[in-house]
DNA sequence: GCGATCAGTT
DNA sequence: CACAACTGATCGC
């Protein structure tokens, strides 16, 4: 079976060029310090952060692509030996530092791979990104849009990060005598922390490795590893728990703030436009929260909008680095691709973006009715993408995936996974199964 | 030691 | 219940 000439966020196969959208670990599975299969194309900031994540990596493999400009890459078809030129433009994805989308064009047509992205309409930076994309697309039709469909369901609605950042300020200001703990990952949410620091004129504690990352990002004055300098600390999300907060509160009054992409599901039939979400595990829900009567229902901060207090020490705020449904819709309307695919299929509930946005695709009907779309097949032979979205597997893996295949629920657009819980994790089995003629 | 896979965490 | 992102154990080489 012919392998893809290029790979996006996919590191286990063999390609001639590899593209990295950003440095979160679910996009670098298979990448390591000793990985050396070929050139990696990424943004300048990702390249700067790269050696910190993969010390000892052969940096001569990295190819920096300035954002917003086209670059040509020569590829050679392994089967025919003929060479072709691929053009690629990285575009700011507004997901985390260094994150980009990749716009490709070549003999195969025009592809846009968003990686993880947030498409806010309010900020200056978002406006620049929108203009950049429109300029890049002005002479092209996107044949296939590979879309971050993490929250591709109208149930997912949350405000812009700027609004939520202000909500976080309100929480902190309303607790002047408390220490503040904020859960973050190894990359991302820097803008939130900078906003807090700027508004409240305080430094923010981070753990030592995170301080190094902050320095690499160019933030030299805002962050500290000295706890005595500030009451606001950003801690690893995996060390942020109810138990942690309860332990801290035996020493000093402390509240936790979790900026989370957890589902902020609109429940129109319940409490009007109130937003609900949860950062609590089911274990905790059963064992402690429900047993603690009434505490979580008090609303000491009536003006916090969708902020939800789940625990006497913990606030969850809908600060998401992925696009909400309305933003995905805006994006699709802007790009108007001929066809599209979701790149996230790890959930037990996969929503095909075509269900919601298919009518926006110019050639959607014809693409669906044609038994063989030659152009699409050419495209798919060229491009191998990450394991959330693999189009190519060996024959035996293909058989396995037949068994684990998803089932399309008629008229719902929701594919209910039949994978066992064991096999459910990020197998990327869903997308191409529905594209292949049987 | 390394990569792949799985289990488990918030 | 759910998510994205992450850590850590284990296994085969």
Automatic annotation (TrEMBL):
Belongs to the DNA repair metallo-beta-lactamase (DRMBL) family. This is Protein artemis. One of its GO terms (biological process) is double-strand break repair via nonhomologous end joining. GO terms for cellular component: nucleus. GO terms for molecular function: 5'-3' DNA exonuclease activity; damaged DNA binding; endonuclease activity. The keyword Nucleotidyltransferase does not apply. InterPro entries: DRMBL, RibonucZ/Hydroxyglut_hydro.
């Amino acid at each position: 079976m012919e392998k893809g000439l290029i790979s996006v966020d996919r590191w286990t196969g063999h390609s001639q060029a590899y593209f990295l959208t950003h440095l979160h670990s679910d996009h670098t599975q298979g990448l390591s310090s000793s990985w050396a299969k070929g050139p990696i194309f990424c943004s300048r900031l990702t390249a700067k952060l790269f050696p910190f994540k993969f010390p000892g990596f052969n940096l001569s493999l990295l190819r920096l692509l300035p954002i917003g400009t086209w670059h040509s890459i020569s590829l050679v078809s392994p089967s025919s030996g003929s060479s072709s030129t691929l053009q690629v433009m990285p575009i700011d994805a507004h997901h985390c530092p260094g994150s980009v989308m990749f716009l490709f064009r070549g003999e195969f047509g025009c592809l846009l791979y968003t990686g993880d992205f947030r498409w806010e309409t309010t900020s200056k930076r978002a406006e620049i990104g929108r203009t950049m994309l429109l300029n890049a697309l002005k002479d092209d039709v996107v044949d296939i849009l590979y879309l971050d469909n993490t929250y591709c369901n109208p149930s997912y609605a949350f405000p812009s990060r700027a609004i939520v950042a202000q909500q976080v300020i309100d929480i902190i200001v309303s607790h002047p005598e408390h220490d503040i703990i904020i859960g973050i990952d190894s990359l991302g949410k820097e803008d939130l922390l900078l906003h807090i620091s700027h508004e409240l004129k305080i430094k923010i504690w981070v753990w030592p490795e995170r301080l190094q990352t902050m320095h690499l990002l160019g933030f030299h004055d805002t962050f500290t590893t000295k706890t005595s300098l500030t009451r606001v600390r950003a801690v690893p999300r995996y060390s942020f728990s109810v138990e942690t907060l309860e332990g801290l509160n035996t020493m000093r009054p402390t509240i936790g703030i979790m900026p989370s992409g957890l589902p902020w599901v609109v429940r129109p039939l319940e409490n009007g436009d109130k937003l609900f979400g949860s950062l609590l595990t089911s274990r905790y829900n059963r064992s402690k929260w429900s047993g603690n009567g009434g505490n979580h229902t008090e609303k000491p901060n009536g003006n916090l909008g969708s902020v939800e207090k789940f625990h006497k020490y913990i606030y969850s705020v809908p600060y998401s680095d992925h696009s909400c449904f309305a933003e995905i819709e805006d994006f699709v309307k802007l790009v108007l691709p001929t066809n599209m695919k979701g790149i996230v299929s790890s959930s037990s509930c996969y929503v095909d973006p075509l269900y919601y946005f298919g009518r926006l695709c110019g050639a959607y009907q014809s693409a669906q009715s044609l038994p063989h779309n030659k152009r699409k097949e050419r495209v798919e032979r060229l491009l191998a993408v990450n394991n959330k979205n693999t189009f190519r597997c060996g024959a035996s893996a293909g058989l396995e995936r037949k068994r684990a295949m998803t089932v399309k629920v008629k008229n719902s657009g929701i594919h209910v996974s039949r994978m066992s819980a064991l096999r459910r994790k990020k197998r990327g089995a869903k997308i191409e199964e529905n594209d292949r003629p049987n």
